Structure formats: C-alpha cells, structure tokens
C-alpha cells in the first residue's frame, strides 16, 4: 500500500474534525482507517503520517491536539492524542 500524500491526509483530518465540531474530538486512527478503506484495510502503517499531518495542522492553527481532553503544544505531543477543530476565541 502506498501512503497517501500529506495533503490528502490533512484534508481527511480537517473533514473529520469539521464534521464533529469544536465540542467533540476524533482519534487519529479514525483518519487512518478512512484513508485505508475501513477497519479491514492496512491502516496501522498510516498512524505515523497521520500524526505528522496533525502536528503540521496544529502549527498552522487549523486543529487542536488534545491529551487527556486538554490542548497541548505540538512540542509536548506524545502518547495517545485526539484532534478537534479549534474552539473560537
């Protein structure tokens, strides 16, 4: 399986986070599964590229990365994370 381009990964992250709205988050694995064609597809190898795309989007202010329900700076991203649309200021 070829890894989707970063733009395609970013677009799927933005699509899913927008669909959930700023009050709910998504798991990066949901993005990987969607890009791989579902749960039966080879989605696990996509987790690294999905996380990298999420970090790039967070740096642009287009998504928030959450740990334990709280936003974290990209420098502190590790372990289990979730993603959401940034809340209005």
TrEMBL record:
Gene3D superfamilies membership: Winged helix-like DNA-binding domain superfamily/Winged helix DNA-binding domain
Record-linked InterPro entries: DUF3253 (IPR021660), WH-like_DNA-bd_sf (IPR036388), WH_DNA-bd_sf (IPR036390)
Coiled coil: none
Pfam families from the UniProt entry: DUF3253
Protein name: DUF3253 domain-containing protein
Transmembrane segments: none
């Amino acid at each position: 399986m070829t890894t989707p381009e970063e733009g395609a990964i970013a677009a799927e992250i933005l699509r899913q986070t927008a669909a959930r709205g700023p009050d709910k988050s998504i798991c990066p694995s949901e993005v990987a599964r969607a890009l791989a064609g579902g749960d039966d597809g080879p989605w696990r190898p996509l987790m690294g590229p999905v996380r990298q795309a999420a970090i790039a989007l967070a740096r642009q202010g287009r998504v928030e990365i959450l740990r334990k329900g709280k936003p974290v700076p990209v420098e502190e991203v590790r372990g289990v994370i979730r993603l959401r649309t940034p809340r209005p200021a």
